[in-house]
Amino acid sequence: MQRISRCRTFSQVISPLSYPKYLAPSSLNCKFIFYLYDIQLRSSSTIISSLAHTSTSFKPTRTTMSTDTNSEVPEGHQLITEGPIQMMYPQTENSVFYNPVQVQNRDLSILMISMYAQRNIERKWETAKKKEVRRQLVEERGDPKEEGSKEERRKKNDEFDREIEERVKKEKEGVDFVKLTKKSGFNSADGAPNGETSGSGGLTILEALAASGLRSLRYWKEIPGVRTIVMNDLDPVAIELARENVIRNEMESSLAKKSHESAGSNANEKDEQKQRPPGITLQVGDATHELYMSRLPPSLPPSQQNPSQLQQKPQYDVIDLDPYGSASPFLDGAVQAVKSGGLLAVTCTDMAALGGSHPETCYGRYAAFPIQRSGYLQELALRMLLYQISVVAGRYGRSIRPVLSVGMAFYCRVFVEVYDDKAGVNNLSLMHGHLFQSTQCSSFHVTPIGTNELVSHQLNPEKYPNPGGKKLSNVFRNGRGPCDLEPVCDETGASYKIGGPLWIGPLHDLDVVNNAITKLETAQENKGVGPSDDLPIFPLHTATTLHGLLVSVSEELPDVPLYYTLTNLCSAVNSCTIPMQSFRAALINAGYRVSAYHKEPQAVKTDAPNHVVWDVVRAWCKNHPPNKRKESKRHQKGEEQGSNAPPNQLPLETAEKILSKKMKTVVDFTIPRGLGERKKARRFAVNPEANWGPKKAASGKNKRKLEDVESK
């Protein structure tokens, strides 16, 4: 929760009788107190805005508050239980709040990060094992790069690589990565590492906008293999609330020790600089400052680094951004602060901008322009967000690989892995595209910004085949718009609206998605927990909803951006709605692929061109004639909305123009065998609660006052 709060006068803030616990002299450096005093002398209106530039990390001290979870709830507060965590929240309006709709967000994050933890351990093991096997082969046979001609060295090196892959694959079968993942975490009951090798490779997670800390505490309890979690927030009151919740859940033993407390020798101090101290760290600071201070430090010896470079912190394995509104201000720092191969989890709740209600705001935040009132706005929002993340990462020679991108409730949630990949950055123009939307019907075209025959074939040989085996060009060229073939919409003769740019690559890693489905199904069979030989899955409150969401995602066409909505197609010609099963059957019988979309029940995602989709509508209307549409008074007067043309130049009605087109496709509505066979799942869940939606943003004026903290 990144918010600017108003503070009272300096005497009220650091009076000896009104010290907040985290400002107590016993736990606060005196220099920081004088820093606050200096700030107050310069400006008595606010001190928190200055704190935005100073990230202060501290270890919370024990208070008189009882850690008994059955203790009486103080007046004006509510006790929330979510998973294994109990949290205390103030009931003051616009204070640090709890939104039960976001439970699904946290449950999904726990599932995805748990799976990433094991993938991370596997990758580290494979990298180390390949180096070990290569050294063994070099000792046995010599270095393949030293002798022979260039062609001979290349062949020997290829043989080395194949044999290394075979040996590593064979040894990998006998490795228990689940056990290694568990041992890598700092999660024992007494706060000590689990075994001798514990914590050496576990995840370091940053929750940049922690608020009450519920998300971080659940990560710590429910995700195996977590070594360090940093809970950061700009508001000291929010961090104080998080500290109280740490105590309430009896997790004080897991708090991270400061470097000077854990360092016992010069060697330990060097190790401390390379990695963060294990445990939970509570931190007051600006999120962007923390991200920029966690970028990869320059490859210079310490003697040549300036003071700011010496203060650089290690990068994170996982960064979670869940702001109130847009995550755009934090993306530049986040793509630099995450390790190569690390996971970036981003939530955006500004659907008014991403959904097209405020296109000028969307362009200012994401450098992409939405299509207003489009049927595919849910997917377009995800693709514009991924476009912005990929562009920001590309500035630093990094590429992204979306693992899961979903729309849930009133927000977007994406999980992407970030890699140091200059080749991927060079291919970025193939993953970006422009959107051309007809102004009078649902027809649209998505065209890539750049083209490259060889790279496109290598990335997606099914979509870009090379049946003749001809030599493909490896030159990047400008993409082509639909105007080459259709200068205007072929169905209505209308002009195009231009939207985007947008990400046109895959939204998900289907291997990860299918693995997640298997884990949820296995956990359901075992009454909410994983089997003994798998990573444990705590009972997730929204497990059924998550299962339906992931099943829907797994059924989507991975290489087809955007979709039609059946209701929009039929309403354009004033027809009754075509049964979804019949519509899909017609497209499949015509030789095209078709799927649904996880956020829209009426979505039709297909690789069929526009004229084929409309041919299906035209064939349906022949057997089910649509009702004649009544002309509005504005249309009768020649005042059709959006047109300044005189009455004698107005085009025919959209429905008449579409239905008058000659059909080019043989349409067969026969239901093919197996079309209705789908995995049983709750694909589109009901609303989570009455009057659900985003809550009003917490404001500094109405946040919990410091006196409430001091009285405890």
Q: Which properties best describe this structure?
A:
712 residues; alpha+beta; eight-stranded mixed beta sheet; 15% strand; disordered N terminus; SAM-dependent_MTases_sf; tRNA_met_Trm1_C; tRNA-binding; transferase; tRNA (guanine(26)-N2)-dimethyltransferase activity
Question: What would you say this structure looks like, in words?
Answer:
With 712 residues, the protein is of the alpha+beta class. Helices cover 38% and strands 15% of the residues. The protein is built from 27 helices and 18 strands. The strands form five sheets. The chain has an eight-stranded mixed sheet with strand order 1-6-5-4-7-8-10-9, sandwiched between helices. Helix 4 (103-141) packs across helix 5, helix 4 packs across helix 6 (177-183) and helix 20 packs antiparallel against helix 21 (543-554). The radius of gyration is 29 Å and the shape is globular. The two termini are 23 Å apart. This is tRNA (guanine(26)-N(2))-dimethyltransferase. Residues 132-161, 252-280, 293-313, 624-651, 677-712 are annotated as: Disordered. GO terms for molecular function: tRNA (guanine(26)-N2)-dimethyltransferase activity; tRNA binding.
List the helices and strands and how they pair.
Layout lengths: L9 H5 L15 H13 L5 H4 L4 E3 L18 E6 L2 E6 L12 H39 L8 H23 L4 H7 L19 E5 L6 H9 L3 E8 L2 H13 L10 H4 L3 H9 L4 E6 L2 H6 L14 H4 L5 E6 L6 H10 E11 L2 H4 L4 H8 L10 H18 L3 E11 L2 E10 L1 H5 L1 H4 E7 L5 E5 L1 E2 L1 H7 L17 E2 L17 E8 L6 H16 L17 H12 L9 E2 H7 L7 H10 L4 E4 L2 E7 L3 H14 L9 H4 L17 H7 L45 H5 L2
Helix pairs in contact: 4-5, 4-6, 13-16, 20-21
